[in-house]
Amino acid sequence: MRIGIIIGRIGDVDGVALETEKWIKVLRRMGHDIYILSGRFRDHVVGPERETLLSTLSFFSPECEWEQNRAFFYPNPDPGELTFHLEKASVRVARRIFRWVLQNKIQMIISENASALPCHLSMGLGIKKALEIMDIPVITHDHDFYWERGDRYKTPHKSIQKMITESFPLRLPHVKHAVINSYSQNAMKERFGRDSMVIPNVMDFSEPYGVKDSYNRDLLKELKFEKDAIPLFQITRIVKRKGIEVAIELVHRLQDQRFKLVITGSFADDERKGYYLELKNYIRQHRLGKQVIFGHKRILSERGLTYHKKKIYSLSDAYANAAACTYFSTYEGFGNAFVECVLAKKPIFVNNYKPVYWPDIGSLGFKTVQLEDNQLTDAAVSEISDILGKPKLQKEVVEHNYQLGKQYFSLDVLEEKLEQLIGSF
User: Fold this and answer.
1) Are the CB atoms for 38 and 224 separated by under 8 Å?
2) What's the domain range around 295?
3) 224 and 316 inside one domain
4) What angle do CA 70, 74, 79 make, to 5 degrees?
5) Does residue 147 sit within a domain?
6) What domain count does the chain have?
7) 290-294: Cβ within 8 A, 24+ apart
8) How many whole angstroms separate alpha carbon 65 and alpha carbon 57?
9) Are residues 147 and 268 in the same domain?
10) Angle, in degrees to the nearest 10, between helices 121-132 and 158-167
């Protein structure tokens, strides 16, 4: 089957783009031909002959930024100009989608979050307009929804709010929904009476990940760690909901200079730098300057070289050198870092983050040290210390978790789900 994927950006490191690439890999393995329409390509994913650039679909396009500012950030008293623009712009998008479908003889469309979250209004509205006149199967891969983002997508304009509630998520007779957790599945049913299939985020368990090799063996040395260091890694962005202060508190309460914490995220993740400064102050107050390190200059998504020709290590390299990982988030749509840690065979210390962890992940039987409401109790600290000090126990835990991860969050699971979803049309 010829399947067309519409996405704001592809070949990037954001969650939607990364999961889309996994879908593409599995769909091609299933024998489907994949075509992509996107506002931004960082790399070729399926080959230039099957990739179509429509720059207005980019989240960084002038059109998108202007729409977001007028709708949410800096709204004008009169929404008339925005309403007029959205009507015209969405028609242009719809026409381009229609032409793309005809030119490539596309038989099914997958909309990647563009029909769920109003982060690009004219794109989502344009997809809706195009699909209203095309009777072909459609899957919307819904990663998150506007009501999950607090005030981010609230607008003072009733007409714009009505447009959002009527179009996001897309609800047409020939549309089927894939959501990434059971919370979203329940919300879709309760709010709109729409059924959906839970397809969790996955990892490729057939490929080695987080394994030491000749390239990454010197990572800890480059970070100026002593040979007896016990490194914990916080492999997330630096944003407040990640609960990184709890990981810092853990290092403080372990009361052992050998324990180190490496925070791989960049201060650039924190738009206003407030949380990053909070973390710096917390480290200073607890006199942990030699035990907590920000590794963003040397640890990025992929290997490379710094300006001064020093090695840049990948996230896989970071996992390879971790004694364990901290993941004390308060909220996640799914939690890719958890599955990455399982794949890398590392112990993980986790908060029961809302609304996903226990219903969709923790209840499956993973062995972790689990906090509730990020309360780092004496019992939890003792259990963590015990795991870190017993290699035999560590091996038992990580092997158990790896087998569970392979059972529930592998590409094979994704293929089974996609076969079922596509076969339901």
Assistant:
1) no
2) 219-408
3) yes
4) 40
5) yes
6) 2
7) 290/257, 291/251, 291/257, 291/259, 291/260, 291/261, 292/248, 292/251, 292/260, 292/261, 292/263, 293/223, 293/260, 293/261, 293/262, 293/263, 294/263, 294/265, 294/267
8) 11
9) no
10) 50
3-state secondary structure of 323: coil
The verdict on pTM exceeding 0.70 is: yes
Residue 365, token pair as written in the block: 């039987």
Residues 184 and 265 placed together within one structural domain of the fold: no
* Alpha-carbon span 220 to 229, nearest angstrom: 9
For every residue of 56-75, DSSP letters joined together read: GGSTTSHHHHHHHIIIIIS-
The encoded tokens of residue 392 equal 């035999």
For residues 353 and 290, give the distance between their C-alpha atoms in angstroms, rounded to a whole number: 29
Tokens of 2: 């010829």
Domain match, 69 and 180 both: yes
Domain annotation covers residue 163: yes
Residues 198, 327: one domain?
no
What CATH code is carried by the domain that includes residue 125? Answer: 3.40.50.2000
Structure tokens at 340: 């990455």
SS3 413: helix
pLDDT in tens, the chain (425 residues): 999 999 999 987 788 998 999 999 999 999 999 999 999 998 889 999 999 999 999 999 999 999 999 999 999 999 999 999 999 999 999 999 999 999 999 999 999 999 999 999 999 999 999 999 999 999 999 999 999 988 999 999 999 999 999 999 999 999 999 999 999 999 999 999 999 999 999 999 999 999 999 999 999 999 999 999 999 999 999 999 999 999 999 999 999 999 999 999 888 777 667 999 999 999 999 999 999 999 988 999 889 999 999 999 999 999 999 999 999 999 999 999 999 999 999 999 999 999 999 999 999 999 999 999 999 999 999 999 999 999 999 999 999 999 999 999 999 999 999 999 999 99
Rounded Cα gap, residues 282 and 287, in angstroms? 9
Indicate if 396 and 417 belong to the same structural domain: no
Burial class (CB in 10 A: 0-12, 13-18, 19+), 385: middle
CB environment 66-91: b (16+ within 10 A), e (fewer): bbbebbbeeeeeebeebbebbeebbe
Task: Indicate the residue type of 155.
Answer: T
